[in-house]
Amino acid sequence: MLKNHFKIACRSLIKRKFYSALNIVGLAIGIACSLFLYLFISFHLSFDGYHKKAATTYRLVNDILFEQTIHDPGASMGMYTTLASDISQVNEAAVMLRNYSFTVTINHPSKSTQRFKEDKNVSLVSPTWFKLFDYKWLAGNPGELKMPNTVALTQKLAVKYFGNANPIGKTILFENKQPVKVVGLISDKPGNTDLKADMYVSLSSLKNLKPDLPDKFFTDWGWINSTTSVYLSLTDVSKKDEVEAGIRKMSRIHMPANWKYYRFRLQPLSDVHFNASYGGSIQKYLLFTLTIIGLFILAIACINYINLSIAQQAKRSIEIGTRKVLGGTAKQLFMQFMTETVTATILAMLLAIALVILLLPFANQTLFINEPLSLVSYKWVSIFLTVLFLVLIIFSGFYPSLILSRINVFKALKNETAGFKAGFLRKGLIVFQNSVAQILIICTLIMVVQVRFLKHTDKGFNRDAVILIPLPAASELKRSFFSKKLEEIPNIQSFSFCHKPPSSGNYGGGSLRFENRDWEKWPVNSRIGDTSYVKTFGLQLVTGRNIRELKTSREYLINETMVSSLGLKTAQEAIGKSLVDGELDDEKGPIVGVVKDFNITSLTAAIGPVLITSYPDRFNMLSVKLKGGDINNTLKHIQKSYEEVYPVEVFDYQFFDEQIANLYKKEALQEKIIWITTTIAIGISCLGLLGLISLVTLQRTKEIGIRKVLGASVSGIVSLLFSDFLQLLIVAMFIAFPLAWWAMKTWLQNFAHRIEIHWWMFALAGLSAVLIALVTVSFQAVKAALANPVKSLRTE
Question: Are strands 610-613 and 525-528 parallel, antiparallel or unpaired?
Fold first, then answer.
């Protein structure tokens, strides 16, 4: 019997090719989207959960207790060296110094020397790092990283440096002078970890690689840096609060002057990937939102399948009646229609899996460049697909199979389809479907406008045609020589030696002391640059003058927000007053000018107090403002000058506006994902409308024929058929608009600088929904209106 059901199901699908294709394709798109979202969500939820000691591992973070608390994911080397030995509940301590940059030289015996600029992808790790965390070693021994001047490379870098040759035992040069031996080869996988780098250098190599580091870097608890990550494995996780209390007690001893400004916490390893306050790359609310969207898209696909199934199988009333006359029971008919649903769902599932396999590489190359998605577990994805398959069969097949199997035999034989008119339930399904689609349209529109606002709004400085060039540590004589060469390039408007641009992803801060007052209770952020810094970045001087480079003293510019924070009524009052910046060696200097407020980080944060000063020892970047014209030719001239001044270094650069765009990678990714899912939801909704209009035109064939005989126009008939759907769309708008407004109002609260939600956004979304529905309905309505009325009436 089951075999017979499948044969009939296949014949039915082949016989009604168009509707079968709509059914299967619509369901396949919904399944593919849900599967893709499952891969994305499960991938991020799995981050660093595979480490054997993950449940007992914590990261040491700190909160700086100013008027507004600053959350910092960093710690200090001094903490790492003392915590493991002084707190009994700590089983293991490990440290990683992240985001270091080096010039790496490879001396090949058979070919010319190669140099590479490794930018923020090098980490120095303690000997205990690979005891605490699990990495797949392809060659070498983690124990050898105890020795100075040793390094373990990932596969990617090993191939980059040595091709397919075995890298173990080979020597590479750091900064063109320090030989380092390769003692390990580590797999590039898994990708679901935040504890990754392209090369892992032994911590004992730090003094050789950075000889200028002061001794207090290794011992001073207060030398806290966001790139210094200290992890602790506890013997008993229930003692976490005791360990935190012990660390705070130790901070009183090691930081007697500043301990009261810090609150040290242990952050669970499972929270590192998600906590945005401490630099997490994705927030759990986004995963929750995507889960809801995935469920909605599946619901839309099921609704679409139900409507299309009833619409096409309504034409089978004579077949149903004949089966019943020949002895077929409602149970047998129900099983037949359920078998057809199972067959269609299997085909849709296979098509969906094929779509995901084909599109995943493309998505990784375009959407997820920094964190490519990968399958976490074949077991769990198989369970997900099995559960999804069963749910789809129940929700998509049960209702239409039940309805169609209970058709009255006499009405079926007369081909009367009045029983198929869209009742309250089916209208409710259409309203739900369109409500979801309209919510997604509105959310996408607002997200696009907000992200565009973030990327292009005035931040208080000029970022156009500015390039950023990393510089090696160099003497003042070399900078002077480089300056003279840059002045000879005609297409350069201005240039500045600095520490970092006005706006960057690095946010830090310290306190300051104004005049004879005590240290302020709010943080100030420092920007370091020479006298051309203001001009190069287009900062606007409100009052006073620019800073000068003085060898014996320091001068400061402050922003308008700092003027207010200091309690001054006007910017002019600040001129001539002295201040001490705790972040810059407590050196005292006068305020010589006030600049207009500008954003030092993304617009998600409010503008805070900022100062600008010159500190040549920290200059590590050259910023160049171009006039325009032939930029490529200008870059070649700059590169030539760079290589003359720094002959053993690798020239690298980045446009400032690209760095600004990188500040909003999370928001841009969220916008793209919502945009894609919205497009899919709209497409599936259109298929649902197409199914319903097919049902309506089938039911009203005789009415349409009579109206045409009486002189009705094609546009009049289309309007007649569309009017019912328009009512449902309006009801959907009343549901969607307030929900979308609430969701977007909540989302926008995450941004200190945000757009206003205007009425036209809802009007545009509503108009778009109406136009999409009109085009979809018109496809079938025009076909019915153009049909020969004589044939329609004869058929009836």
Answer: parallel
Same domain, 690 and 736: yes
pLDDT of residue 65: 82
**What is the structure's pLDDT at 2?**
61
245 and 210 within one domain: yes
Q: What is the rounded distance in angstroms from the CA atom of residue 353 to the CA atom of residue 677? A: 17
Element (H, E) at 611: strand 610-613
Q: For the segment 192-217, what is each residue's pLDDT rounded down to a tens digit?
A: 899 989 999 999 999 999 888 888 88
658 and 672 share a domain? Answer: no
Count of the separate structural domains present in the chain: 3
Domain annotation covers residue 278: no
Does residue 646 share a domain with residue 539?
Answer: yes
Q: What is the pTM of this model?
A: 0.83
Distance CA 490, CA 498 (A): 22
Domain contains 410: yes
First-last CA distance in the chain: 35
Of 451 and 307, the structure prediction assigns the larger pLDDT to 451
User: Could you tell me if residue 219 is inside a domain?
Assistant: yes
Clarify whether residues 11 and 72 are in a common domain: no
pLDDT tens by residue, 725-743: 788 888 989 999 999 999 8
DSSP secondary structure string for all residues of 520-588: PSS-BEEEEB-TTHHHHTTPPEEEE------SS---EEEEHHHHHHTT-SSGGGGTT-EEEETTTTT-E
Of 246, 272, 298, which marks where a domain is finished? Answer: 272
Look at residues 775, 766, 777, 776 and name the one whose alpha carbon lies nearest to residue 720. 777
Distance CA 289, CA 37 (A): 11
Residues, the chain: 796
Comparing 397-401, 536-540, 578-582, 641-645, the range with the smallest average pLDDT is 397-401
Residue at which a domain ends, from 272, 302, 329? 272
Q: Are residues 293 and 440 in the same domain?
A: yes
Q: What's the pLDDT tens digit per position in 382-396?
A: 899 899 888 888 877
Q: Cα(631)–Cα(542) distance, rounded to whole angstroms?
A: 32
Is residue 467 a contact partner of residue 344, using CB atoms and an 8 Å limit? Answer: no
In terms of Cβ atoms closer than 10 Å to its own Cβ (0-12, 13-18, 19+), residue 444 is: buried
Instruction: Name the range with the highest mean pLDDT among 171-185, 300-314, 605-619.
Output: 171-185
Instruction: Residue 236: give the domain boundaries.
Output: 54-272
